[in-house]
């Protein structure tokens, strides 16, 4: 038996203004699109903005459905849109922000497992890391330099 360990690292910024201008700009786009979320059931609005290598920014918000599982998260809406519109462009970074209409959220909400798996697909495909930043409506911002930091041992196409 070999006892292995997984080491992950992430950065926590006290607020958005502490970040580099490019990151701030991307988060602002995520905040903008978050306001267009369709979340009548959860009242939880999420926005995601994706920066591509060619400088394009692709955004998405969560879209809910009366048949709950038919809805889709902001991150997957954005990343599938990026994949559909710009299939040959590498993804450099994703900014995610959440806001609840029920309560004040200040703790950065990390992307759900299914969205991490979706991001993993593109990181494996492009063979370069995708930077991920997430925050609530206000407050601290968490940043990881690669999807692998928040989804170690991910399943990928090499197993197929
Ligand atoms: N949601 C996202 O858009 N991204 C996540 O990573 C977690 C959850 C959405 C799905 C649903 O519309 C609402 O937030 C509450 O779960």
TrEMBL record:
CDD domains: cytidine_deaminase. The active site is at residue 75. Zn(2+) binds at residues 73, 112, 115. One of its GO terms (biological process) is nucleobase-containing small molecule metabolic process. Its EC number is 3.5.4.5. The keyword rRNA-binding does not apply. PROSITE patterns: CYT_DCMP_DEAMINASES_1, CYT_DCMP_DEAMINASES_2. The keyword Zinc applies. Belongs to the cytidine and deoxycytidylate deaminase family. This enzyme scavenges exogenous and endogenous cytidine and 2'-deoxycytidine for UMP synthesis. This is Cytidine deaminase. It comes from Mesonia phycicola.
């Amino acid at each position: 038996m070999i006892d292995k360990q997984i080491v992950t690292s992430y950065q926590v910024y006290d607020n958005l203004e502490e970040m580099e201008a490019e990151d701030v700009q991307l988060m602002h786009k995520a905040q903008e699109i978050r306001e267009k979320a369709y979340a009548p059931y959860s009242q939880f609005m999420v926005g995601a903005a994706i920066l591509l290598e060619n400088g394009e920014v692709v955004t998405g918000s969560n879209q809910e459905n009366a048949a709950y599982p038919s809805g889709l998260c902001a991150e997957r809406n954005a990343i599938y849109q990026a994949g559909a519109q710009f299939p040959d462009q590498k993804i450099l970074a994703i900014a995610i922000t959440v806001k609840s209409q029920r309560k004040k959220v200040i703790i950065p909400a990390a992307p759900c497992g299914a969205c991490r798996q979706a991001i993993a697909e593109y990181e494996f495909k492009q063979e370069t890391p995708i930077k991920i930043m997430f925050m609530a409506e206000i407050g601290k911002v968490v940043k990881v330099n690669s999807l692998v930091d928040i989804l170690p041992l991910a399943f990928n196409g090499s197993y197929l």
